[in-house]
Structures are given as structure tokens and as C-alpha cells.
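User: I'm preparing a small set of examples for a lab meeting where we compare how different chains pack in three dimensions. I only have the primary sequence for this one, and I'd like the structure in C-alpha cell form so I can line it up with the others. Please keep the answer compact; I'll paste it straight into my notes.
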Amino acid sequence: MRQWVSQFGCPAAGWLPLVVSSPDGAERAAREIAEWEGEGMREYAEEVYPELKTIWEEMRERRAAPVAVYVPPVPLDSHLRVPIIAYVQGRLVSPQERTMEAIVDLVSQPQPDQFRKPDITVVELPAGPACRMPRECLQVLGVLVQPGSHPEGDGDGRGDGRLPDRAAPQDGGEQRMTEENGEGDMMSEWVPVFDYPADEEWLLLDVNVPGGAERVAQQVADRGGRENKRYAKAVREHLEFSWKGAREEGTAAVVVYVPHAWRNAPLLTPASVNTNRFTPDHGRTMEALMAKMRDPTITPEDAEITAVELPAGPACRVRQTFSLDTGDAGAAVENVLHHVLAEEYPEEILLLNAHWVSDAFSSGMVELADQMAASLRLTARGSGESPRPVLAAPEAKVAFDEVQIGKGMRPIAQHGFVTIEQGVLTLLDSDRQPIDSAPVTKIHASRRGITGGTVVSLTLNGEKYNVSPGWGARRPSLPIPGFGNPVKDATDILMQLIERGGGTTD
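Assistant: Understood. Below is the C-alpha cell output for the 506-residue chain.
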């Protein structure tokens, strides 16, 4: 698919690219200033940096690119350190709005910060006919262009992309400012979004915002309690890896499942859903796509492959199970893929990928993957629509292992289990045989103070049991990385889950 990149020329001296697609775009510009020849440039760069950061944040919010800023080689005697900004920002419009008369009428509307009526003229540019508008209130010169290569928008309709290709100064001391698409879909006028569970364990990992992983980790920490702050610290590294990978692969949206408690599975985030798109190496038809998916070198022979109709377009649905090598132990992972032939991407295939660790959920994940696919839709870039948390969450399964279980002074199991599944808490002995079970809503839990918080007294069906998750192992195998006392922290989480499930605690 052909993609278009905006660029413009500007003088070489004092002009810098401000790369909005890079989390450290403002820092890069400041470092370049610090390297200028002359005394006091480092101090000058430190003075300019806060203003550069503010501009970077606004340009990123506008999805503008490329962006160039002018920083005078000699500081101005003014509160402004960056007196000039030049940028390209696309805007999607309807065919009726995409006429020069409509554009002139739009920009002629009075603005609250405008001192007088602007002097609007129509000019011809190499990129296309344009509406030129200086605004004296802010000393702004605006140019709205109708480029022939973008038939449904003013400008290029794109947002931020990869690092700028800053060419060497041209004749007359000019340089070209350009910022290419680095995420695979930034030039596209359509963005895929989908619905996901309205549950605080399901979180949106925004790949278009710097610090997306930190935001999700903070949400985990904000669930409350000492154990959640440590849990958030442990999960942040994994989220950071996922965020960087999604950025590199051009993933448009990612939703991750971060459970309240570790589900005794090898992955800290045992489920995630994302969208991506790719150009196929085969014909872009349902027949060719189905044939490709049935290739045993591509898809396991026992995979379910069906053709389905989605609102976003016809799709090839693939359900498969595979083993994921996680180092110490493997994990059975289930995967539902929807390869969608969306009209909005005439040369590409849109992929919705939902995968999860099999034993992390009791049921409902396959149904959830299909519901997400049914909600998949393409929206105009800049519409502000994003994935919506409106679906019901699937039934999760919690399992604590190496649990020491006893009644009074009598031990029952040294390497037992506590599971919470479909609202029922079950105690299992070392051979996974049932000891007792009851709805969480009928259970009372209290801490045994003399144990330093490592033992919980559970009352099930009138019987009292002392349980200590992780105590049965020489090294606890309920691994929540970064936790200082895994047994106590597991006990805290068990108490928290009982309280959230409707049980009583003290």
C-alpha cells in the first residue's frame, strides 16, 4: 500500500526537528542545543527544555508531524525561548467539506483569541491549492492544503511516526523536515478499535502514548494495598516489553489482563488481545486466506478454521492451542485469531489476536474473543474513539499451591492447594483431593496474629481451617517477583479475593 509522508523546508540555522513519535523527542532537541558552539549552551539548553517539552506534548496530542522549532542561537530577551513553531497536522473531512469554498468559510469564522478579521487568500502550492491565513493575535500563519494524493482530507491525515529524516542543508541554507511512518498504520485514515471487559483486571495498554506501560502499572498499584504496589513493580517490566514490541510491530491497540492475584501460571499477564495488519504473500481473497491457514506448516492440524462474517468484513477464524516455552515450565496457551478482509484496507489483512494461558480461566475466553471480534470496527483517525470497556469479564481461576492446611493443631496437607473458581473456594490436599469447599460468599476469613500475617483462618461450612499459601515449599512456589515475603503477600491476596468475592474478613 502506498503511503504518503509530509515534509517541508526551513532554514538551517536555529531550526530543529521535534520528533513527536519518540518519547524523548524534546530531550533530543535539547541535547542538540547543548552541543552548539559557544559558551553557556548547556545552560541555555536547560532553560529551553521545559518549553520544548510543552510543545512536544501539545504536538503529540494534535498528532502533528513533522514538527520544526526555531531556537535562536542567542537567547531572546523574552519569556519565550522557542518563538517559532512549524508543523503539519492532518484533518479528515467529508467530501462536501473538501472544497476551497468550504475551507475558506470554515477559517473565516470568528475566534475568541482573534483581534481582527484575518486576511485570507487562496494560493497555489506544489502540494495543491491552499487557503493561506495569517492570524495577528498569535502571529500565526496557517495554510490549509488540498493535496491530490489525499482525496478525503486536508493535509495528510496522519499522526506522528518514526524519527525524522533530517537532510543536509540545501542550496540557500535550507533543510527538509520530514517524519516518516514508523508504526505501519499512522498514514491510514482508519483505526481499528474493539470492546473489552469492563473489569479492573482488564486494562488498555496504549501503544501510542509514551509511558503506556507505566500507566497500566500505576492502575495495578492503585487497586490498593502493599501487595499491589509490589505486584505493579513486578509486572511493569513485562508490560514495558509488551509495549515496545507492540510499537515495533505497528500494533494499533492492546488490552492486557493483569489479575488481582497470580494465577499459578508462568506469565504475569496471562491474557492479551491486540490488533495488527499485514500485507499477505498470497491472494487477498477468503479462498486464498483459508488455504493458507490450512497449511500444516502455518497452523496445527487440529486447529479449528472457519469462515465467519463480522461487521468489519468477512474473516477467517482460527482457534488453536500451543505450548509456550517459559523457561522453568511450559504453558498451554489458547489462541483465537480473526483475519479480517476489511474494505478500508484494500491491500492488507486486519488481524485481531486473542491469546491466553489455558488454566488462567474457568470458561468464557473463547466466547469473549468472539465478542471482541464482533465489536471490531474501523473508525476515522482523529475521531477520538478508542477501545471501550463494556463487555462482561470471563470467569477467572485462582490457584494457590504449596499451601499448608490444618485444623487446630492437626496438619491435613503440607503441599495442598486453595482454588477459587466460579465463585467457589476449594481446599485440596497434597494429592489434589477435595478437603472442603464453599461459596466465597459463605466464607469468613481472619488472620492469625501470632503468625505475623502468614496464616489465615478460614471458616467453611462451620469448620475452621488454618491455611498458609506457599509455606509448604522450601522456597515458596507462588512466585510474585519483587515481593519481600511471598507467603505473607499471598495471604494478603487471598484475604483480598475473599473480600472482593463477597465473603467476610477481619
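A couple of notes for your slides: Residues 149-172, 180-187, 474-484 have pLDDT under 50 and may be disordered. Residues 401 and 417 are 5 Å apart (CA to CA).

User: Perfect, thanks.
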